[in-house]
Amino acid sequence: MLAVISPRPLLFRVSVKLFYVSSFSFLKSTEHKLITRFCLFPARSHVSCDIKGDVAVVRFNTPNSKVNTLSRQLSSEFTDVMNEIWANEAVKSAVLISSKPGSFIAGADIDMIEACKTSQEVTQLSQEGQKMLEKIEQSPKPVVAAISGSCLGGGLEVAIACHYRIATKDKKTILGTPEVLLGLLPGAGATQRLPKMVGLPAAFDMMLTGRNIRADRAKKMGLVDQLVDPLGPGMKAPEARTIEYLEEVAIGFARGLANRTVSAKRSKGLIQRITDYAMALPFVRRQVYKTVENKVQKQTKGLYPAPLKIIEVTRQLLNAKLSASLFPFFQSFGQLAVTKEAKALIGLYHGQVLCKKNKFGTPQREVKTLAVLGAGLMGAGIAQVSVDKGLKTILKDTAQQGLDRGQQQVFKGLNSKVKKKSLTSFERDSILSNLTGQLDYKGFEKADMVIEAVFEDINIKHKVLKEVEAVIPAHCIFASNTSALPISQIAAVSKRPEKVIGMHYFSPVDRMQLLEIITTDKTSQDTAASAVAVGLKQGKVVIVVKDGPGFYTTRCLGPMLAEVVRVLQEGIDPKKIDAISTAFGFPVGAATLIDEVGVDVATHVAEDLGKAFGERFGGGSIELFKLMVEKGFLGRKAGKGFYVYQEGVKNRSLNSGMDEILARFKVPAKPEVCTDEDIQMRLVTRFVNEAAMCLQEGILSNPVEGDIGAVFGLGFPPCLGGPFRYADSYGAKQLVDKLRKYEAVYGSQFTPCQLLLDYANSPSKKFHQ
Amino acid sequence: MGSYFKLTGILVNIPSLLAVQPKSKKTLAKSGVKNIVVVEGVRIPFLQSGYCLHGANSVCFHLLCRGLLNRTSVPRDVVDYIVYGTVIQEVKTSNVAREAALGAGFSDKTPAHTVTMACISSNQAMTTGVGMIAAGQCDVVVAGGVELMSDVPIRHSRKMRKTMLTLNRAKTLGQKLSLISKIRPDYFAPELPAVAEFSTSETMGHSADRLAAAFGISRLEQDEYALRSHTLAKKAQDGGLLLDVVPFKVPGKDTVTKDNGIRPSSMEQMGKLKPAFVKPYGTVTAANSSFLTDGASAVLLMSEEKALAMGYKPKAYLRDFVYVSQDPKDQLLLGPTYATPKVLEKAGLTMADIDVFEFHEAFAGQILANLKAMDSDWFAQNCMGRKSKVGAPPLEKFNNWGGSLSLGHPFAATGCRLVITAAHRLKKEGGQYGLVAACAAGGQVMMLHGLALFPLERGSNYISAPVSTMKSSPVTPGVGAPLKSRGTGCL
User: Fold this and answer.
1) In this complex, is the C-beta atom of A264 within 8 Å of any C-beta atom belonging to chain B?
2) How does the average pLDDT of chain A come out, rounded?
3) ipTM of the complex
4) Which residues contact A640 (CB under 8 A, 6 or more apart)?
5) In 3D, which of A481, A480, A476, A475 has the Cα closest to residue A507?
6) What are phi and psi of A538, to 5 degrees?
7) Contact in structure between A338 and A118 (CB atoms under 8 Å)
8) GO molecular function terms here (chain A) (predicted)?
């Protein structure tokens, strides 16, 4: 007996305990006892159960994983455990908790949803989950969710089906319904329970934005009933003790709920009561639905089906009286799960997870002190995301004025977090104490990494590199933040090119998630490992590409912007270009994008890339940009570009000064390729073709990074999942056909690359299997 | 003043005490460093806040100083310097020490300054005095602390202050009116001083509750400890052991003669209270926390030569001290744990050498957490970077005459009470070494978290003769000799 059980000590403990309890309470009913015993024996690896007095403590613990996910295995074990609890008369209440401090349940298992071949299968999954949660909701024995760590998606749905929620008040504990970000809807009752719990407007806000809600905010909203403060070190590690304490507190409340000394009813505030009253009026509700729907339409351009479905389902459920009418709701979930938008968004999710890992392994030496050269927009941004992650950061500039501006930018960035209450003013000040602003190279002898963000001029970069190498220690890495200058060219003057690497950040650095790391042939593995580690520490999604003009991201953008210029020259006005590009799913219109990037920068890059790649990067006339620069129409930073930018004016108007320039460069439009759809495709096919060429040339090592880079760095429509995902879903053949059509009109700029042709020739070949 | 013979009697009568004292009782005197002694210490009765004190800090103070001077009959002009501690500052008397000194009739030639370091402000006052004497700056220092929680300064809101200050500069009536017209009802909301950490915005009680939870200390344990404190304090009060209390005539009211916060209750009654900070499930309640208290205390410190020359019998020698600070969030109240091993090592003593422990009791949970932390190898290894635990002080030597939980805790007056209580207990119980510890927080000062700790050595006139005569161990002469030779002049 012992030999059989010993490999599963946990199970043994559980079953003995359960048996112990049941042997007291079921003496009369041998039959029942036998059943109870029988149920205990199946091996459980994901869910365990302890009986503490009259309270059952159910623990989630997905093996070999940092987080718990609602997989088939976990769900079925959870169901079994709950059935035992309901059958056990000695148990009066239950606590649900995770054995992992950082994760209650992080959501449904995405692989499980992806593995479903048909929408029916997904519908069934949703139905099963919903049934289980209904049983919990109606359980005569109170169930308390003790939440520590991420409580997202299906996890939140489990929590809100319980009678009471207690959450740890720390930064790791977040609640939310991120399904919409994956093109799905909350499939196990959040659409139904959330509005009742937090009110319709707040529920819509959660479900439509997928935003994470911290524990203290959740308490204020009524999403959780009690908070538990995280504990400091005591007789064991703080995290372990905190979760133990959470459990103790939860057991107390479970007992209180069972013997009715605690009430699960919340006392609602006045505002909440007024809102509830208003929401009960049908015409108010209709108005809310209408407003929300309009807003969603406006923001998504109808490209994302999930938010609209969420509104629809919520409305149906709130009106529905009978459980029979829930069926269309389950169906909606199933339908959404098999849409190409959901597949694209889920693909991005997987890609993001992949790009949050360091494929070069752990670097030999951790970067603790970072020096940033140049306190401009980029430099200060890099300093901000570094210093607030605990890196000692030196910010160096050549002029006091520039340095002051940069330091002010960092302060402002952190202070905005204080205003949003995600940081205290004390924390802000203690973070800032790790930032040193200076004009000289003092302290560089202690730097582990230097990131230069000086002006994009090869001579200046060379000068800076030489100066820095004279003062830094041997192990120190030199990283260049450039958007187009080849790193090998910068490294040419280095004494130790193995320590030179490219780190291409995107503006604004504190908001853009992507970091493109560029390695040359000479860059060492360890240098790459360090750079990725720093990027991940800064909270970035990191892609690593090979060196070349424009690397990956800038290079893809080049041809597309050249095409934008041609379209402008053909007489389409910037507003129209913006409209048709956002209609395609780009978050920022193509003309606005040029204004944002800066016309001077765009000119610079276009010239460099034009020299490197020749005719393929042609299309629009670069002279148009040059004239804009000459006239001072540099884009947003100058107040004038294609548009006029004024402080406080929301509806910006077209820059009338551009009329003359556009007129001067006007070329006749080709009517056969000038419909809205053709213009969209001219922009996108050039983008995708260039991306494929980067993969073909080995600049990119895989399509996943290509998709992530395009979406997170350049705003490629997320609903399409990136250029490679798009090529798969649109069809490589169809893409090639389009390219050929435009090639016939414009020539070699549209010649499809070999890789794309290969994929077009064998329809079974996909970038993403 | 206790006499030498009385003490001998006690030692003889308690053989068990002797049984634990065969260890080497060396002196902690350091060559080349002046011996600094406590000649006397007094305090006014500690009174629950709001009870009857409504005077200014300085008034309360100078009355106490008079008490000190009367008891020691030290000539006023002998005092070289006065250091006083206070936490909640009265803006009008920001250097309260000087006001008190003048009011108490000290010479107006005696300089005085005020120090602040949260709950250990009077510890800071004493160590400042110790430093000054050790450095040869002076020979006689009065150190103490005062806290009047009944009268805390309440400010106008920031917006109101700004308006008022701008108003001062407004020249024309129009400007003044326009400023006044901007005042909104919320401008009148006052700003109260909070017992919260500046850095974390967490109140002390909340922190104590988390600390108790971190160490798994139950409500029951805390209530039991609080009851112990009240019971022992009551016993000490009834037995007339609290010799440091001097009667205090409250202006406009009767004279108070004893602490009024000592209220031994029952476990049942204490169990009925609701949690005061972490609601509704916490463990720290009003009954197991120290309460807001008014009070003042002072000690007369001298260099040993000066004391002996003036014919005083020192009550205690102040031998060593350390201040430490930790993370203000999670270890706010764990100072004693960190400081105890440090000061013991510095003085070359072990836990077993200490006969009397006087620790400041901010919360029952905090004391119990410290005891557990000192007794935990995990804590020593993971948080303190030590190889092993220092060990917890035995409870029978610990705060035997009550503590801050029962006597009360006027922030800046507690330190002197601890020192003088330790001295009195050493004498009464016949011990040689005492250890005083208190934890503090950085409420208004930017100091994060400090702690003062003294291994006290009892005055040599009490100890040297009995020990050397009663023991025949070969160690004793070596120990006794220097003490004797040093003390003979006075004995």
Assistant:
1) no
2) 88
3) 0.81
4) A632, A633, A634, A655, A657
5) A481
6) -75, 0
7) yes
8) enoyl-CoA hydratase activity; long-chain (3S)-3-hydroxyacyl-CoA dehydrogenase (NAD+) activity; NAD+ binding; transferase activity
Alpha-helical segments (H) within B299-363: 304-309, 335-347
Q: Give dist(CA A217, CA A199) in Å, integer.
A: 15
Of residues A234, A237, A249, nearest to B216 (C-beta) = A234
CB B262 within 8 A of CB B190: no
Per-residue pLDDT tens digits for A541-573:
999 999 999 999 999 999 999 999 999 999 998
Nearest to B281 among A234, A252, A426 (CB): A252
Q: Contacts of residue B278 in chain A, CB cutoff 8 Å? A: 229
Instruction: State which residue of chain B sits closest to A251, comparing Cα positions.
Output: B281
Omega into B328 within 30° of 0, i.e. cis? no
- pLDDT exceeds 80 at position A34: no
Structural domains in chain B, CATH included, are 36-153+196-458 (3.40.47.10), 158-188 (no CATH)
pTM score: 0.83
In A, which residues are within 8 Å of B384 by CB distance?
Answer: none
Q: How many residues does chain A have?
A: 769
Which of B158, B218, B281 to probe the A interface (max A CBs under 10 A)?
A: B281
> What residue of B is the nearest CA neighbor of A238?
B214
Q: Which residue of B has its CA nearest to A253?
A: B281
The pair phi, psi for residue A111, each rounded to 5°, is: -60, -35
Residue range A265-289, pLDDT digits in tens: 777 777 778 887 887 788 888 888 8
B210–A236: do the CB atoms touch at under 8 Å?
Answer: no
User: By the CB < 8 Å criterion, does B281 face chain A?
Assistant: yes
Q: Which pLDDT score, from 0 to 100, does residue B391 have?
A: 92
| CB–CB contact B210 A229 (8 Å) | yes
Inter-chain residue contact B378 with A226, CB threshold 8 Å? no
Contact call for B378 and A235, based on CB within 8 A: yes
Q: What is the DSSP string of B468-486?
A: HHH---THHHHHHHHHHHH
| Residue A765 CB coordination number (10 Å) | 13
Is the CB of residue A403 less than 8 Å from the CB of residue A376? no
Question: How much is the CA Rg of chain B, to the nearest whole Å?
Answer: 24
Task: Flag residues of chain B having pLDDT under 50.
Answer: 1-24, 442-454, 459-491
Q: Is pLDDT of A248 > 90?
A: yes
